[in-house]
Structure formats: C-alpha cells, structure tokens
Amino acid sequence: MRLYGKHRGTLIYSMWGRKKSETVMGQALVPVLPNLWRFALSLSGRPDVADDLVQSTCLRAIERQDQFQPGTKLQAWVFTICRSIWLNELRKTSVRKTGSLTTVAVENIPDIFPPQETNIFAREVFMKVMALPEAQRETVLLVYVEEFTYREAADLLDVPIGTIMSRLSAARAKLAPLAQSSQGTGKVQKQ
Amino acid sequence: MTYSDDDLRTYFMGHMPPDQAAALEQALHTDAGLARRMMALDPAAGDVKQAFAALVRPVQSIPTRSVRGGAAPIAASLAAAVALFAAGWWAKPVAPTGWMAEVAAYQALYVAQTVDIETNTADQMTQLIKVGGAIGRDVTALQAGGPGVTFKRAQILGYDAQPIAQLVYQGHGGTPIALCLIKTRGAGDTPIVQTMKGMASAHWRSGDHDVLLIGGQDEQMIRVLAQMFQNRLKV
User: Fold this and answer.
1) What is the pLDDT of residue A118?
2) Mean of the pLDDT values across residues A133-158?
C-alpha cells in the first residue's frame, strides 16, 4: 500500500550531520537530572509540570550549550535555564489550569514517595515545604536540598543575600512546629 | 565581628535583635566561612534534605514496565531519555514495516526548506482540529511544540485505508521533524528508539493510537522529544 499525501515528488537533498557537542552536553546533564526534577517541582508545585519543565530545560541546554562556560557550575547554569523557562513560558499556563501558584494536589504527594517509605515525618516535612509560597519553596530547595551557598542561591534567583536569608527565616518558622512536635517538646517557637 | 555557634543558633531561632541580625546578614556578603558555618547549623536544613532525598517521580507518569522492584529512581527514568545508556525503558529496535516504513520513506524527502514556511496560529489550530477529527484524538495540545521545536502544520496522510495524522515541526537548525499518529496496530507502551531511513525515530502506543516521531540524526534529542510528546498525549 502506498503512502499518499500532499508533497510527493520533493527532491532529496543532503542529510544533516550529528553535532558531537550536543551529545556531550546531553551526557553532562545526566547526573544533574534528579536535582533538576526536584528544582522543577519546587518551582511548579506539580509533578506533571515538572516533567515538562525538565524536558524543556534539557532541550534548551542542549540548544544553547555553546553558552555554558566550562569550569563553572553546570547545575547552576541548568537551574537558571529551568527557572527562566518556568517564569517566562510555563508559569502562566500552569496558573491558568490550576488557579494557583503554590499547591501540589494533596492526593499526588504520597505517590512521589517510594512505596516502602514509612518515614511519616519526612512526608510531613515535604508537604510543608511544598505548601510554602513559591519564592520560599525554591530558596529552601536550592539551599537546604541542593546545598547552594547563600551567595550562589542569591545569584541564581537574582535577589540580594538578605532576601535569601529572610525567605529561609520565614520557611524555618513554618517548619519549626513540625520539628518540635517530632521531638515531643510541645514548645511554640517565637515567630 | 566574630559570631559563636550560640550566636548563630540565636539567629536561627529568631531571637537575635534585628540590628544584630542585619549586621550578621551583611557579614555574609564577605565572610564565606561564616556562611558555611550557618548552613551547617541551620536546624531545618537536615530534615528538609532528608525529606527530598528519597523523592521519586510519580509512578503513573513514567513507564512502569521496565521498573524493577517498585518505583524507579528519578535518575534512571529521566536519564534514559537524555543519555544513551540502557535503563530498560527503551525496548529493542525492530525493523520498520508497514505504515512506519512508508512514513519514514516520506519523511526522508523532507528538507529544511520544506518546513521553512510562514504559518499562523489560527490556521494551525484548524489543521489540528481537522486531523484530530480524522483519527479520533484531540491533538491540539501538540501545537505547543517546545524549546527549539516549532510546530508548523498538520495534515492527513493515509495508509491501508487508515488516516494518519502528520504533525510537522521545525527543529533545531531547521531540521524537519514529524509526529504521526494512526489507530493502533500493535505497538508497545515502551518507546522504541531506532534509526529509520537514516533518521532518528521513536515509536510507541498512546491509548488507542500508535505514535511515530521521526526526523534528523540526533537520537538523544528524539528521546527527549518523545518523552515530552508522550506526556502531552496522556489519555
């Protein structure tokens, strides 16, 4: 059976060559992917949007790999791309769909943890972090989880170090009751 | 000024007077050692890091056929889309036959000039609605494309009296890339990445349709795009 369509008879030209440097960047991204997905989740608050964000980020990083300066931190460069795509391209669509910038559907949260995970406290901490406002959430992830320094986080988020510190303070205040209840002190920390 | 560990703990508890706290934060601009000490003493950091350490991608959003012993770590699932190591997510290649062989032969005729065309969103949506109606699947979400991949046009092809929805994209460097859907003819859920007619391709089943993504020679790009389109086509 023949394939039929509108463009029969087009002449064949030469094929395109593979770009070895794109393969190198693709391979360099591999160890960063788990971190990138966590960061994408902290930005979007939604695992499905995080998927899209990671894929878009990888495509753009490969496309713009000439802009990466060897010797600098690849993770910071990729995270910057990810955040840019989120702020400039995906954020509006996500807000239109969900009506919210911050929330992860509660029913999805347990699915993100491994089935064998029985650490209830870890799950509660995770839910608390995901309920933070976006700015605090992304800062917490960069500093606490990905261990960026305060300065690196400030540069990546394009804010002063003081803003990083105030966001972390606000996040700590929200997380403190969890830590105290897990220790059984019952104390209320001064806000 | 030198800060003791107790000073830093006082800061973390929110008990440091505002002017002293401001001075400490100012010191962070120039004192990397102080920053390191603070990060080590932050009472919330350890709990948060531990909570996120075991995070995995939701099982329903990634292929589970190749998962061994439960939900796969994010690194294995996502890395397989970008790197070329076998995590079991990509099935073994098969020789293209039938509709895929014909589409590959057709796609091999495409050149950069074929997709270097002016389009507008209204016409594109009209085309997408039409081709979607022909195959019984809403494909309007595929108009979005992605970074470096721009949707150009959609048309209906045919094979063995079955309509094929062909969506054409302009990829990086002007590379023509096609995404084709046909009522399922037995493809598996697990995407197969291989070379067809000298072009990188990926094919899989999505609901009631088989999907073929083909174009260029960059196999890892095709893997990344395949995951993107797979997510967009979720039923």
Assistant:
1) 57
2) 93
Nearest 10 degrees: CA dihedral of B115, B213, A16, B97?
-110
Task: Please determine, for residue A176, whether its predicted confidence score (pLDDT) is greater than 90.
Answer: no
Element (H, E) at B119: none
Q: What residue of B is the nearest CA neighbor of A60?
A: B147
Cα dihedral sign for A111, A116, A120, A124? negative
Q: Do B51 and A123 touch (CB under 8 A)?
A: yes
Collect all residues with Cβ–Cβ distance below 8 Å to B17 and sequence separation of at least 6: none
What pLDDT is recorded for position A95?
A: 58
- Distance CA(B119)–CA(A85), nearest Å, equals 24
Which residues, in sequence order, are CB contacts of B116 under 8 Å at separation 6+? B170, B174
Q: Which of B109, B146, B227 sits opposite A10 (nearest CB)?
A: B109
Q: Token pair for residue B160?
A: 């063995």
Q: How confident is the model at residue A142 (pLDDT cuts 50, 70, 90)?
A: very high
| pLDDT tens by residue, A63-120 | 888 888 888 889 999 999 999 999 988 777 665 555 544 455 545 555 666 555 557 7
List chain A residues with CB under 8 Å of B12.
Answer: 172
Question: What would the DSSP string read from start to end of B123-156?
Answer: HHHHHHHHHHHHHTS--GGGGG-BTTBEEEEEEE
Give, in degrees to the nearest 5, the angle at Cα B109 between B106 and B110: 105
Q: Are the Cβ atoms of A161 and B28 closer than 8 angstroms?
A: yes
Instruction: State how far the Cα of A158 lies from the Cα of A164, in Å rounded to an integer.
Output: 10
Map tokens 């690196």 to a residue: A152
Fill in the DSSP letter of residue A87: I
Over its C-alpha atoms, chain A yields an Rg (Å, rounded) of 21
CA-derived radius of gyration, chain B: 25
- The one-letter amino acid code at B184 reads T
Q: How far apart are CA B183 and CA B206, in angstroms?
A: 10
Q: Which residues of chain B fall short of a pLDDT of 70?
A: 54, 56-96, 147, 235
Cβ–Cβ under 8 Å, residues A175 and A125 = yes
Model pLDDT for residues A147-167, shown as the tens digit of each residue: 999 999 999 999 999 999 999
Structure tokens at A166: 């105030």
What pTM, to 2 d.p., does this model score? 0.55
